[in-house]
């Protein structure tokens, strides 16, 4: 095979980026691969729409079926987003034995197991490098580079939109809504952007990474997920004063909260898979990942710590990851080696996700307190009853008024115990509003 014909479904931010990147580096790729990539057709919703990247009218169609079924199309690239029609597109292509490249983490999170099985049944492959962490080749790292390791820790800043928002809130004191609008304009955000700011996009990606790292498909419903809507400039500022930066963090950890013993010595216990905003020490490299950049820290039992950094969203970073998959798929077609690196190999029969209630964390807590004698004693007593220790208390000066903010830094405690203690504290007459609780991660 000397030429692979691509049928691309979606000509928006990522589709446009892929079209432009192939125009720019297609010849370079052909000389490296010995096979050229040719865009046969691009399906869009509205062929008349003005596009940031112009796609020749002769390539545009509005019927995705026609693209997938076209006998001239050897490889289908799903860049439309969503989980309903996109699932039909991917299934239709795989059932025709055509390999598929997708950037769609929501689709994989919801239907990955099914799609991988159909790919296997039809002797073809599903490639998804662009689904996690934009331009960082983290899927290849986990599937190939670190195949000889058991993964004991994985931390990721994997949502570019949230990192962009949190960075600008910290650096410029910018307003949440205004920065989100900028992230949408720059093509970073999902449609709708709630997927980003409520943590679901990061959960989709963290689930994919956890599944690859631990060999069982993580059910997205088991991933504890918090977004960044509740993060205020006040908390960002207090965190700064304490030497921390707030980031939306995906965590995949083994042996944290050891309530669940492994059923067999060679099998793993339940793992933590969660997404939440966290205070990260400023001295840690992850606290210095700013703007749309993503980072993934992976600890393997053989290799130790490894770190991967790059742009996490936007047309060019994502196009780079799609091109990497196109190269793999083209070579697999050329050498008829479609199953050389299968998309996902389930090998952990007893894999399970730990309930967040059993996860042990440190915490930053902000209370709005009526400044009266004896209040601290009552707060400390509620925590002591739950066997929870306070590592420091700060009542910043210059907040005179009816209520004052009080910041508590809390030692390691199970999430369930912490939640119960805060519910008791919230009932105290001197506490106004809901307590704010943000986990503290030292990334050990
Ligand atoms: P987008 O800009 O909204 O583009 C979606 C494209 O799909 C549009 O061209 C749209 O056509 C087309 N489309 C929608 N429904 C269609 C249908 N039924 N038939 C044919 N075409 C249809 O979205 P995007 O940002 O490129 O994202 C695409 C995918 O990449 C999503 O899964 C997203 O999660 C993922 N992703 C995005 C980024 C990023 O930074 N944006 C990064 C990584 C992964 P029209 O143009 O005519 O409306
Ligand atoms: N909306 C996603 C993000 C796009 O902001 O990270 C990249 O997957």
Structure description:
- 36% of the residues lie in helices and 25% in strands.
- By secondary structure, it is an alpha/beta fold.
- The protein has three domains: 2-127, 3-Layer(aba) Sandwich (Rossmann fold); 140-312 and 350-356, Dihydrodipicolinate Reductase, domain 2, CATH 3.30.360; 359-440, Alpha-Beta Plaits.
- Strands 7, 8, 9, 10, 11, 12, 13, 14, 15 and 16 form a ten-stranded mixed β-sheet that branches. Strands 3-2-1-4-5-6 form a six-stranded parallel β-sheet, sandwiched between helices.
- The longest helix has 21 residues, at 13-33.
- 46% of the residues are buried.
- It binds NADP nicotinamide-adenine-dinucleotide phosphate and L-homoserine.
- Residues 9-15, 43-46, 49, 64, 79-81, 85, 103-104, 130, 134, 187-188, 190-191, 313-314, 318 line the site of NADP nicotinamide-adenine-dinucleotide phosphate (NAP).
